[in-house]
Structures are given as C-alpha cells and as structure tokens.
Amino acid sequence: MKSVVARTLRSLQNNILAGILAGILTIGPLFVTYLIFSFLFGTLAKAGLPLVQLFASIFPASWLEQPWLQSLLAIALTLVVLYVVGRLTSLVVGRQAFNLFEALLERLPFVAKVYTSVRQLLDTMMAKKETSQRVVLVDFPIPGQKSIGFLTRSFTDSTTGAQLAAVLLPNAINPTSAFLQLLPMERVIETDLSMEQAMSMLMTGGAVGPETIQFSARPSIQEGAAPGTTPKS
C-alpha cells in the first residue's frame, strides 16, 4: 500500500514539474519580450512626457489629463522627433550642424569622453557585416570556456610588434553591460555568426541560435602541412 502511494505521489510530482516547465517554456519568451518592449516604451514615454505635459498646461483639456493618453502621445512624439532628427542629419546642412554640435561636445572634458565612447560603441554595434566588426569567441573567464564577443578593432603592441585585438564581451540576458578584453590576435577565434545571431544567443541565454557554430580555430596552412614540405601558394 505504501509503495502504491509513493508511486502515485512521485508521478503526481513529476506531472506537476513537467507542467510548470512547459508553462515556463511557453510564457518565458513572451515575458522576456514584454520586458524588452516595456523598457523601450517606458524610455520613449519618459523622454516625451515633459513636452506633452507642457502642451496640456498650455491647452487645458480633460482628455489630455489621462495618464495613459499622455504616455501614448509621449511615445508618438518621441518617435516623430527621432525620425525628424534622423532625416535632418542625413541632409548636408543637417550633417554640418550635427558635426558642429559634436565638436562643441568634444570640448567638454568629461562629457566628451562619455559621448565619444558611447558613439563609437553604437557605431560598432550598428556596423555592417562587411566592416571590421566581427563576432568572435575568446577564452573567458577561464581557458577552455568560450565567450561570445565582438572584435571592435585591432592594433599593434608597441613593444613586441604583435597584433592585438580589442574584444567586447557582452553579458548574457543583459548585453548593455560588458567586459573589454585586450588579447593577442591568435587567441581570438573568428566565427561565422552574424550580429543578429550573436545578439539572439545573448538575449536568450543561448536558447535561440544556429544549429552549428565554429567553436575551434581553423588550422592554418602551415599547421596542416606535412613536416619538411613547403605550403603551396
């Protein structure tokens, strides 16, 4: 009798755990998507809300005092402003005015460092695939464990003349924070991942990604050649 009760409780426990796991797998992506869009829309609403409230104070109306309507108008207003700014900066006059604005920012000691770093990071993240931006793997945090990174630039060691790489290692789930690693170029493994695939893997903790990935470095021609032979050019 006790064994029957034990098997029944064990089966019930397994069914409950399986149901909870299935619910997590179903609701999880929707919840993460909700958090991302909630953060984006919240940021847009906060950016445009002061203008909407100013407009409501100048032209008082009962329908403008609704919080949900103010948030909606603030999001729409922020998107319109971003679109107008983008269109203006694409023109010659707008580009010259924006360059002048950037030149003024670069004269401010602390602001110049922050703005320049953020601007370079955004330019690198939004760069086209054919640029120097590449998705790579590096040994981090310990040898044998690979982390996805973005090779942002390469430079030369002034002492040895060796090629070095600057690799940005975003954190999974929260890629807005990252580590910057400077390491020899030969310790960087180039992958065939696109920026979109790499960001999908980071945002989902590896749950979304390609079926295959280049985990090991490809052997060079010299390494693959037989001893005592000269590689063909």
Summed up:
It is built from 6 helices and 5 strands; from the N terminus they run ααααβββββαα. The protein is an alpha+beta fold and 233 residues long.
| Topology as a string of helices (H) and strands (E) | HHHHEEEEEHH
Q: What characterizes the major β-sheet?
A: 5 strands, antiparallel
Distance between the termini: 79 Å
Structural class: alpha+beta
- The count of domains is 2
Shape: flat
Helix content: 40-55%
Strand order of the largest sheet: 4-3-2-1-5
Q: Taking Cα atoms only, what radius of gyration do you get, to the nearest Å?
A: 26 Å
Poorly predicted residue ranges? 221-233
Q: How many beta strands in the DSSP annotation?
A: 5
SS field, number of helical segments? 6
Tell me the strand percentage band. Answer: 5-15%
Rounded average pLDDT: 77
Structure report:
The chain has 233 residues and is an alpha+beta fold. 54% of the residues lie in helices and 15% in strands. The protein has two domains: 1-105, no CATH class; 129-217. The protein has helices at residues 2-58, 67-90, 92-105, 109-125, 195-203, 221-224, and strands spanning 134-139, 146-156, 163-170, 178-184, 189-190. A five-stranded antiparallel beta sheet has the order 4-3-2-1-5, with helices on one face. The longest helix is centred in the N-terminal third of the chain and has 57 residues, at 2-58. It starts with a helix and ends in a 9-residue tail after the last helix. Mean pLDDT is 77; it is low at 221-233.
